[in-house]
Design brief:
The chain is an alpha+beta fold and about 150 residues long. It is built from four helices and six strands. It has a single domain (about 5-150), classed as Hotdog Thioesterase (Thiol Ester Dehydrase, Chain A, Roll), CATH 3.10.129.10. The chain is globular. It starts with 5 loop residues before the first helix and ends with a strand.
Length: about 150
């Protein structure tokens, strides 16, 4: 990917993460410190209780954290591997309508990349993504532990 724009990221979704794309997840914004994606509850991504399936919420949440990690790695101009090593999720309210997920912890990634470059050792760090409905009520919250390592 040459540029981290919303349109390029949504094209990336269609080509590299088709299950997320066909579930209706779309990147809505990315900046130096924050990434956002949204998904509308539809027949294709619902559970038997007529709300957004937990796995679709998890995909959207992982996406916003992962996009920030990818962006920061690209900006470092180093070859760095990345992997989710742990995940937890909490659900607070039935997810219907348009759900927006965001992660605003880009500075944590900067610190981990800097440490990994300086020490040559792998680093782990926690990123949180939260999902909100159209009334700005929190419907879910996910924590992802990412592991990065500079490749030699």
């Amino acid at each position: 990917m040459t540029k981290f724009s919303v349109s390029n990221l949504n094209r990336f979704l269609a080509l590299k993460l088709p299950s997320a794309y066909f579930s209706g997840i779309r990147v809505t914004g990315i900046s130096d410190n924050e990434a956002m994606a949204s998904v509308r509850h539809k027949w294709i991504n619902q559970n038997p209780f007529k709300s957004l399936y937990w796995a679709t919420q998890g995909m959207a949440a992982e996406l916003v954290t992962g996009l920030l990690v990818m962006k920061k790695i690209k900006e470092s101009k180093k070859k760095i591997s990345m992997l989710v090593v742990h995940q937890e999720g909490d659900f607070f309210k039935k997810a219907t309508g348009l759900i927006t997920f965001n992660c605003d912890q880009g500075s944590r990634i900067d610190e981990a990349i800097e440490r990994s470059i300086k020490t040559g050792e792998g680093q782990t760090f926690l990123l949180q993504a939260e999902g909100f409905n159209e009334q700005y009520e929190k419907v879910s919250s996910f924590e992802f532990t990412w592991s990065i390592k500079v490749k030699s």
